[in-house]
C-alpha cells in the first residue's frame, strides 16, 4: 500500500510540475491613475511591478496620441531578487478633439526565454485615465438596479449617473414605471432629485416601492431620467417571491444494481434570502414498498439560486425492473416533492459513461504501476540479500 501511495504522489507531482512550469503571475501598483484633462500639462507616474524573482519583463504603452504624449523610463528589465521593480511613466497631456473618457495603458509582459507550461506569456496592465469634457451639458447612466425582495418588503430602485460635460447641470430627476409579470403598467413612482451637478460628479437617484399584496413573479422597471430636460432611459428586472423551493428535475433514469448510485436532483429557490439547512430524502419504491432510501447532507440555498444536490442510494440485491424514485426536500418547516419512474438495470463495463470508464482505467493503471514497482523493489531486495549472503 505504501508503494502505491508513493507512486500516486510522484505521478501527481510530475503532472503539476509540468502543468504550471513557466506560469508567472504579475501584479502592478497602483492599478490606475486618474488625472484632470489639461492639454500641455506634464505628469510623472510611479509604478511598481510584482512577479517572480529575476523575471524578465517587457513594457509597452498605448492610448490616444500615445506616440508623442507618453514615454517609458525603460522598456525591458528584470525584477529584483524579491520579484519587484519600480519604473516611471512620463505623460504630456495632448490636445484631444473628441470628448469622452480616454485611457493610456501601460502593459507589462513576461519576456522569459523558452517559456514552458500551458500559459507562460502573462501580462498586467496599469491605466492612466482622463476625461475630455463635452462642451455642453452631458450625463451618462452608470447603472440602474432594483433589488429582489419578498412580498411585503419594499423594492429599492437606484440609478447612478455621472456628468461628463463642461457645464454645471442644474437638476437631475425622473421616475420609474413598474410593469407586472404580464407586462401591464402597475404604477409610476418618482425618483429623488439632485441639483448643481459638476463635471465628473457622480450622483445617485433612489426610490422605494411597496410590494404589499403583490403577486410572485418577475417584474420590469423602466427609468425615465432627465437632466435639464435631456432624457436618459433604462430598464431592469426584479423578482418578488415568498419562501419557496421547487424540485425542477431528478437527473437520473437508470440505476445500476449492486452499487452505490449517485442520484442528483435540482432544486430552485424562489425566495429573496438564503435558506439554511436544506436537505433531501430519496426513496426507491415498488408497489408502494420502500426498497431503498437515503438522506442527503444539508446545504444552504442562496437567494433566487438553482443548485444540484446529490444523494447516494444503495441498490444492493435489488431486482432489475421498473421502480418509482421519489425525492422530498425539507426546509423551514416546509417540503417540496417530486417523483419519477426509473429502471434498475445490470450494467456491463461498456455501458458506463466516458468519465466513469476513464476514471476506472486510470485507477487500473495506477494499481498496475504500483504492483510493478512493488515487485521490482522486492526482487531487488532479494538479489541484494543473496549477494550479501555470498560475500
Secondary structure elements and their pairing?
Layout: H1 2-20, E1 27-29, E2 32-36, E3 42-50, E4 56-62, H2 66-69, E5 70-72, E6 76-78, E7 84-92, E8 100-110, E9 123-132, E10 139-146, E11 149-150, E12 155-163, E13 169-179, E14 185-190, E15 194-197, E16 202-209, E17 217-227, E18 230-241, E19 245-250, E20 254-256, E21 260-269, E22 275-286, E23 289-295, E24 299-301, E25 306-314, E26 321-331, E27 334-345, H3 354-390
Helix pairs in contact: 1-3
Q: Which strand-content bin applies to the residues?
A: over 45%
The end-to-end distance, rounded to whole angstroms, is 33 Å
In the CATH classification, which architecture of the largest domain applies? Sandwich
Shape: flat
State the CATH topology of the largest domain. Immunoglobulin-like
Structural class: alpha+beta
Amino acid at each position: 500500500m505504501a508503494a502505491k501511495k508513493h507512486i500516486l504522489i510522484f505521478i501527481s507531482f510530475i503532472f503539476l510540475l509540468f502543468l504550471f512550469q513557466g506560469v508567472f503571475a504579475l501584479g502592478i501598483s497602483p492599478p490606475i491613475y486618474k488625472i484632470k484633462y489639461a492639454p500641455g500639462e506634464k505628469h510623472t507616474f510611479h509604478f511598481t511591478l510584482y512577479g517572480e524573482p529575476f523575471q524578465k519583463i517587457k513594457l509597452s504603452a498605448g492610448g490616444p496620441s500615445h506616440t508623442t504624449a507618453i514615454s517609458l523610463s525603460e522598456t525591458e528589465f528584470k525584477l529584483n531578487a524579491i520579484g519587484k521593480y519600480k519604473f516611471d511613466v512620463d505623460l504630456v497631456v495632448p490636445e484631444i478633439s473628441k470628448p469622452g473618457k480616454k485611457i493610456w495603458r501601460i502593459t507589462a509582459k513576461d519576456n522569459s526565454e523558452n517559456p514552458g507550461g500551458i500559459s507562460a506569456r502573462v501580462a498586467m496592465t496599469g491605466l492612466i485615465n482622463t476625461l475630455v469634457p463635452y462642451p455642453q451639458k452631458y450625463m451618462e447612466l452608470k447603472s440602474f438596479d432594483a433589488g429582489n425582495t419578498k412580498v411585503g418588503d419594499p423594492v429599492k430602485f437606484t440609478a447612478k449617473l455621472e456628468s461628463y460635460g463642461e457645464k454645471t447641470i442644474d437638476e437631475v430627476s425622473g421616475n420609474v414605471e413598474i410593469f407586472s409579470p404580464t407586462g401591464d403598467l402597475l404604477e409610476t413612482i418618482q425618483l429623488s432629485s439632485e441639483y448643481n451637478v459638476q463635471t465628473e460628479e457622480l450622483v445617485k437617484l433612489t426610490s422605494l416601492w411597496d410590494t404589499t399584496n403583490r403577486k410572485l413573479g418577475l417584474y420590469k422597471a423602466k427609468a425615465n431620467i432627465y437632466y435639464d430636460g435631456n432624457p436618459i432611459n433604462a430598464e431592469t428586472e426584479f423578482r418578488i417571491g415568498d419562501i419557496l423551493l421547487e424540485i425542477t428535475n431528478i437527473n437520473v433514469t437508470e440505476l445500476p444494481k449492486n452499487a452505490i448510485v449517485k442520484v442528483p436532483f435540482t432544486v430552485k429557490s424562489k425566495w429573496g434570502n438564503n435558506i439554511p439547512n436544506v436537505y433531501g430524502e430519496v426513496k426507491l419504491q415498488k408497489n408502494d414498498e420502500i426498497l431503498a432510501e437515503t438522506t442527503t447532507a444539508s446545504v444552504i440555498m442562496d437567494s433566487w439560486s438553482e443548485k444540484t444536490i446529490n444523494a447516494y442510494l444503495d441498490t444492493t440485491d435489488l431486482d432489475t425492473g421498473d421502480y418509482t424514485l421519489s425525492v422530498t426536500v425539507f426546509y423551514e418547516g416546509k417540503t417540496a416533492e417530486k417523483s419519477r419512474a426509473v429502471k434498475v438495470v445490470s450494467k456491463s463495463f461498456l455501458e458506463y459513461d466516458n468519465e466513469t470508464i476513464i476514471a476506472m482505467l486510470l485507477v487500473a493503471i495506477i494499481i498496475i504501476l504500483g504492483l510493478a514497482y512493488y515487485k521490482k523493489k522486492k526482487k531487488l531486495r532479494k538479489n541484494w540479500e543473496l549477494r550479501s549472503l555470498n560475500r
